[in-house]
Each structure stands twice: as structure tokens, then as C-alpha cells.
Specification:
The structure is a homodimer.
Chain A: E1 12-16, H1 20-32, E2 36-40, H2 44-47, E3 56-58, H3 61-65, E4 70-73, H4 80-90, E5 98-101, H5 107-112, H6 114-119, E6 123-124, E7 126-129, E8 150-154, H7 159-171, E9 175-178, H8 181-207, H9 219-224, H10 232-241, H11 243-265, H12 269-286
Parallel strand pairs in A: 1-2, 1-4, 2-3, 4-5, 5-6, 8-9
Antiparallel strand pairs in A: 7-8
Chain lengths: ~300, ~300
């Protein structure tokens, strides 16, 4: 580990996965002045766009990790255990290395990924920068993606390693909160995984019977279902990995819709208005206007 | 009616209701070069902001309508019948007058508002410019609100009056479609009224148990619930007026969520991914990226 936990200029950074998050880390790391940044992808095609920005772009896990002291796993959560096994087989990293990730689920990662690294004698600290988008791939990557974005860090038993990972995200401009994995998973089930499913269900009910109705859709429907544009395999992985936390949210959602159905069925106008006003107040109090969308 | 159905320069336009839509009509009418525009509001306070842009701003229905040949009702749907009765009591409009509206529900308006005007010998043509927002009031009004916005016109038996109303919206830049009231109400239940309820229900399930989770909400949740910011009394009126069309949509939404619950419960990963991919495809095919939000 570097002498100064907040200095990343001499870091040798290895990024595994060249998508929106991994690609943005590459660009943000460059902007931060990190001297040596490697990026790994599963295929030559997957790393072609990122290669011009990296010191090394490779499909060889051991080559990407060689001598690196800060490793970030940016592959889908369900692909992390296998990648961890590959990495630990080579053990080509620097003796001071720390590993973190960007996975949207932390319980599964701390249970099934962290122990693989622990066995190999390297510290794993879980991270979740909440800066995703329904758009995927390096083409959407931005150097400032993490600026002002919330980032949750799941501490490891090694306080110095945890501090180093926190400092990394703060150097990129993120607002870091430390949180246990179980609490993290419950929070993101509510504020991130639930909306993905709600958006898909709203799409089916809005356009499932006659998609040509979309000709009359204004920005309301478009915004409500935007996150339904997220990649299906990635979201399958997230929902499966966080199943226990997501299921109760979906039951709450179903019950909230049943409430509205009941209010309308029994023509309870006052009750209906009260619920609509509660929703408006909840939004006004807790969800300030969004950042502008990606261009 | 003017000799040229597409010339509005000599129109005497009376706008009833100085909110987002009425206010935007005032500004758009000015930009179009309409010489005489009056605006009516329920209280002096409600018309204060609009007054500087109008030839007359008044709380007197008869004064606003006096000599007008194009009248637009921009009050909430549930307030329209009483306003229509007031207007027909004075009958101060020009002999060539046409009346239209901007209501989000058309069946109720054609059943309960159009006949009041028919009895008074004036043609009513239903309109629904789909350019609303969760933001309300004249402060949000924009001269270009209707540009490129879909606008549904419900034809009256008088083809010339219908053509004049269509020409009006087209002059403001809207993309007009003619549609029967019942079909309109089914379409907007799906693409507009359903998302409002889905957004509210998503908010309750996301933040209803612990609103502090909002600290970790990214743009995904914010966009998904944006339309829950709409005014509660107005939306109560819309949902009540379009109850018969909205209820089946909500049942479809509830069923779509139940499907997701079942897929997760029985750990049907392939089925889950298939549904997520269907939603992504439905969005990609039918909902192009949204217009930028209001500033």
C-alpha cells in the first residue's frame, strides 16, 4: 500500500471488465493522474474501444494483474466468483495489493468472492458506486461518472485496506458511506432493484396489449420505464443474487397497487387523493430533482 | 369562423384556467401572433402572473368570453361542467365561437360538458394536448410546450369546427391525431394514468418503510417516480373520471408484478431473464429517448 492513503499517482490500477463502470474507472483514473492502468476484458472485441486509454488492455487475467496494487472487479456479480478464482490462480499482483469491486449486490459478493481472496492472502473490500445507467458498454463511459454519486463501501476486517478503498472513491468525487453488506442489500433492493422490476411491469401493462399506444406516450411514461432498458442478463444476476431482499419489496409494491385498485373500485375519492398526496410529499421531501440524463 | 381555417391572427382567444397548460397557451398564442388573448382564473391571485402577457386577465367568466371566437377550457376535468354552465349562462361569445378543452379524459368531457355547449348552440370539440408535466402553475408555462407534442382531438359532428381546432393545435406545432373519446380514454389510461399510479406505488414500496433509504437513490428511482409529483387533487379527478379504463390497467400491472414475484420465488432464472429482455425490447422498439426535462 502507498505510504499516503490518499495519493494514487503511483498506483498500479487493474480494472477487470471494460463496460460502463470499468470504462468510466479507466477514464476517471486517467483524469486523476494514475500512472499505470490496465484493463482486462473477456474478448479482444470487448477491450478494443478501451485499449487506447489504457497502459495495457488484455484478455489475460494474470497479465492485467501483474504487479498491480489496486484491483477492481467490474464484471457482473454472477461472473465474479469465477474471475476471483482465475485471479487467485495466478497471484501475479503486488504484495501490497487490495481488491474491490463495483457489484450491485454485496451479501453474495462478501460471502462468495471475498473468501476466495482471503484464502489467497489479499484483502477484499466491497464497493458499490451507485452511478449505473440503463446504458451499457464503454461507449457510454464518462470520466466524471462517479462525481457526486453515492458509493457504499462494505468494510473488511483490515481497517487500512478499507480506508484505502474509501479514499479511492473519494478521490473520484464520490460520496462514500460505510455499510454492512446485509443493510446495503436491503437498501438497494428498495431504491434500485425494485424500480427496475416496477419499470418492466409498468411497460408490460402500458404497452403489452397494444404497443401502438406508445405513439401517444409523453415523457411521463418514458421516464417511468427508463430503467427497464437495463441489460437483461446483468439484471437477472442482480435480482437472483439479491432475491431475499427484493422479494419483500415486490410484495410491498403489489400491495400498494392493490390499495389503489381497492380505492378506485369502491370510489373512495378522498382516500385516493390522500394516497396521491402522500406520494407527492414523499417525493418532494426525499428525492430532489434528478441530475440531467446522459447526453 | 375565420375565412381561412389556418389563420389565427385575428382570433379572439379566451383561455379559462391560468395553469401550466392555460399559461403555455397564452404564451404560445402570443408567439403565434394572435391579436387578442384573454385569460380567466378563479381568483385574482391565480391570474396575477399571467396578466402581463394577456390583453385581459379577469375572474369574470362573461368578461373573458365576451366576443371571443375560440374558447379553451384549461381547468381540471372535474371543474369543467360547472364552468360550462357559467359560460352558457352569459353566452357572451361571438356567434362564430368554437369551444375546446385540454382535459386528460375525454369520455366524461364529451358526455357531461359537450352537451351543455350544444344546448347553448355552440360547437364543442374535445382536445387533449399531451404536454403536461408533474410541475404545475403559470411559473412552469412555456411558449413551446406544445411543439412536437402529441395532441388528440375528438371530432364533433361539425366537420368545420373540428378542422378549425385541429388547425389550431397544428399552428402551435402539435402532432394531431383524431380519435373517438372511448379509444382516447383507453390509450391515455395505459400511457399516462397508469404510470402516475405505478410511480406512487413504487415510491411507497421504495421509501414507505424507511425514507432515509432515499440517501442512496440514484437517477433510476428518481425517474421512475417523477410523475408521482403531480398534483393530487387534479390526479384524483383524472383517475375518477377515467376509472373504467384505468382499473383494468392496474389489474394488469398487479398481475405483471405477481409474475415477477413468482419467477423469483421459484428461482426461474431463465424465465426472469426472458421477461426482463422482453421489457427492454418493448422499450427499445416503442419508446425513443425522451425529450430533455423542463429546466
Amino acid at each position: 500500500m502507498a505510504d499516503n492513503a490518499h495519493d494514487f499517482s503511483s498506483t498500479r490500477l487493474a480494472i477487470f471488465g471494460p463496460g460502463l463502470l470499468g470504462g468510466s474507472l479507466l477514464l476517471a483514473g486517467r483524469a486523476l493522474g494514475i500512472a499505470d492502468i490496465r484493463i482486462w476484458g473477456r474478448s479482444e472485441r470487448s477491450i478494443a474501444e478501451a485499449a487506447p486509454f489504457a497502459d495495457l488492455a488484455t484478455t489475460d487475467v494474470a497479465a492485467a494483474a501483474k504487479g498491480a496494487d489496486f484491483l477492481i472487479l467490474c464484471v457482473p456479480v454472477e461472473a465474479m466468483p469465477a474471475l476471483a478464482v482465475d485471479l487467485c490462480r495466478s497471484r501475479s499482483w503486488a504484495p501490497t495489493a487490495i481488491v474491490t469491486d463495483v457489484g450491485s449486490v454485496k451479501g453474495m459478493v462478501m460471502r462468495h468472492v471475498a473468501p476466495i481472496f482471503a484464502q489467497a492472502g489479499v484483502d477484499f473490500v466491497g464497493s458499490h458506486p451507485m452511478a449505473g445507467s440503463e446504458r451499457a458498454g464503454f461507449a457510454q463511459a464518462k470520466a466524471d461518472l462517479f462525481v457526486e454519486a453515492p458509493c457504499i463501501v462494505v468494510p473488511s476486517e483490515n481497517a487500512a485496506a478499507t480506508a484505502r478503498v474509501v479514499a479511492f472513491w473519494e478521490a473520484l468525487g464520490s460520496r462514500v458511506t460505510r455499510m454492512e453488506a446485509a443493510r446495503h442489500d436491503h437498501v438497494v433492493a428498495r431504491v434500485s432493484h425494485l424500480p427496475r422490476v416496477a419499470a418492466a411491469a409498468t411497460l408490460f401493462s402500458a404497452l403489452g396489449r397494444d404497443a401502438s399506444d406508445a405513439d401517444f406516450a409523453a415523457n411521463g411514461l418514458k421516464d417511468t420505464v427508463r430503467v427497464a432498458g437495463g441489460e437483461a442478463p446483468m439484471w437477472r444476476g442482480i435480482l437472483e443474487a439479491n432475491r431475499d431482499a427484493v422479494l419483500p419489496c415486490l410484495v410491498d409494491l403489489r400491495d400498494a397497487i392493490d390499495d389503489f385498485i381497492e380505492l378506485l373500485r369502491r370510489e373512495d375519492g378522498a382516500g385516493l387523493e390522500k394516497r396521491l398526496a402522500e406520494a407527492k410529499a414523499l417525493r418532494a421531501q426525499h428525492l430532489p430533482p434528478r441530475q440531467p440524463p446522459l447526453p
